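Data availability (excerpt). All sequences and predicted token strings are deposited with the supplementary files. A representative entry, Aspartate aminotransferase family protein, is shown inline so that the format can be inspected without opening the archive.
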Amino acid sequence: MSHDRFDVDEFTRCLDRAHAHAGAYLRALPQRHVGAQLGREELMAALRAPLPAHGEDAAAVLDLLAAQAPQGTSACASPRYFGFVIGGSYPVALAADWMVSAWDQNAGIHVISPLAAAAEEIAAQWLLELFDLPRESGVGFVTGCQMANFTCLAAARHGVLRQAGWDVETEGLYGAPRVHVVASAESHITIDVAMRYLGFGTRALHRVESDAQGRMLPGRLREVLETLEGPVIVCAQAGNVNTGAFDPLREIGEITRTHGAWLHVDGAFGLWARASESLRAAADGIELADSWATDAHKWLNVPYDCGVAIVRSAQDHRTAMTSVAAYLIQTGGLERDAVDWVPEFSRRARGVPVYATLRTLGRDGVAALVDRCCDRARRMAAALGAEPGVRILNDVVLNQVLVRFGDDDDITRAVVSGVQAEGTCWLSGTTWHGLGAMRISVSNWATSEDDAARSVDAILRVYRAVRAAK
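Structure token line:
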């Protein structure tokens, strides 16, 4: 291969080979062992080599990587992958993502990629419409909900300090009025990490007690707020990562408004309930918030990585994020510069797969996706809970199921590891209120009734074997 000129034929050869490997991987996905079967040592042995002096054949390099994929990857896109909260990829989303790579656009500013800017602007408006959030909100496409929470809380930091007469972007935090950040005892770890990134520190976080399902107690929130003076940011949750439960958002929204606090909602997957008529009530009151964070690579099932930061005050959002430099050619008109809404300068055009997927599915398709996943979760919970010695620990209000076996931590952990090793499906373990549990998250568009039933059968087979061994 020539390394010093644009060779269309070489692009075609490489892409054709990659396409063949990807097709083989996807064809095997529905039936393969769902967990990864190779560890570090095996993969390092297969891939490690001295840095080549003169380079190797491109096709051979692609073949080497592809050969490790069937056993060296977890089948996260499998319809029987229930670990963490991970979606698959719709065919159109994957195809659009491939085109994004082929275009190789730095989507930071409009002048570099008008197409990426336009697609992301439209996708942003469609998301606001789908979630029925204020249409004037600022929207940024980031890597995931960690950066979405960071972006929203940076806007919140700017907004509450601006109201206190302090410009944090210019003056920093030294000497600024103290900002109180309040969150549920069950808030996701990404809130804590954002606190560190933003200079607040985690020790400054005021924790509010939660109930047995992980929902913030509004009465306790009111009591905490009454003890605080000065700028306040409250972090609520739509979709507890273990139970799927929603904080009582309307009551929390009314309390925070009464106290003049900024309300941020971490809705990594729960915000998508707003797209479903049958689930929408769970997120009632979420529109009272000032900012919202979610993931598209969870329930919209676009490829990694894609998170979304939404801020009611577009001005606070933009001021907290934007960067200006003499060499940048930034728009002064209606055109969208992504750098105004996200922490990154150089960034992938990750809003393009969002655009393609929303346009392909439409409002009804997104609602059907969310409803279907939740129905599968309820069915799995009912089937597992009917087995003697198996207990469902949570109210299955969304797509999350917590399962405990034999009312015993060791048995439960043995079942989790046994299921992972057996390979029909893959799911993770957790500790919930001091109890070991299996955590099932149904987030994949392709999970069928048969996939759910096969997975339940596999889980119960492993449980019965563990119980018999005990």
